[in-house]
Amino acid sequence: MLNRAAWARILPFLAYMAFIVVADLLSRVGVDAATLRWLYPIKIGFVFLLLVVFWRQYQELASWRCSARLLAVAAAAGVVVLVLWLNLAAGWMVMGQSSGFDPRSGGQIDWSLALPRLAGATLVVPVMEELFWRSFLMRWLVHQDFEQVAPQQVGWGSWAVSSLLFGIEHNLWLAGLVAGLIYGFLYRRSGNIWAAIVAHGVTNGLLGIWIISTANWSYW
């Protein structure tokens, strides 16, 4: 059911999620939040290493093929998702509680923590998540041999289901759902995974800058 190309997209995502579970377990046994912040650079570094190891399996990343117009559309989509993310935060739109990520030490921002968080969210997470949610899952729901499924062949059902699961992954589930629908639509329409990655990166990058500027750490 799952070939090497599938595992190349699944394992970085599973590693990322495993670190979240480990952080939760460590907090339950008494490890303080300040110490746990250092897990994030380790997590991002490990996920980045897996992406490098499996890079040859990501055939759709081998060619950039992004026109200036497509890049502009992707960037605009990323900004739209950011605006929605900051506004879709009413009580019923939130699932659980997010402890966030506070990079301050002694009341001052510790840039050795803040910069890896910003870089990871902007450059590593979009690649990892788009490869899993869009490149793999959205097409795998159409056919197990997902690499033979062109993005334009993905039906509305697969697009909706993968987007819903993407939303549930996030504390702001409705914002996550809408983000998944937008990134997925961009991928389906353009046939280019880089477009979804750029949009995702723009959202995360601008969100990170906003978080640092306003000290709304819960959004991290």
Automatic annotation (TrEMBL):
The keyword Transmembrane applies. One of its GO terms (biological process) is proteolysis. GO terms for molecular function: endopeptidase activity. The keyword Protease applies. It comes from Duganella fentianensis. Residues 114-205 form the CAAX prenyl protease 2/Lysostaphin resistance protein A-like domain. This is CAAX prenyl protease-related protein. Pfam families: Rce1-like.
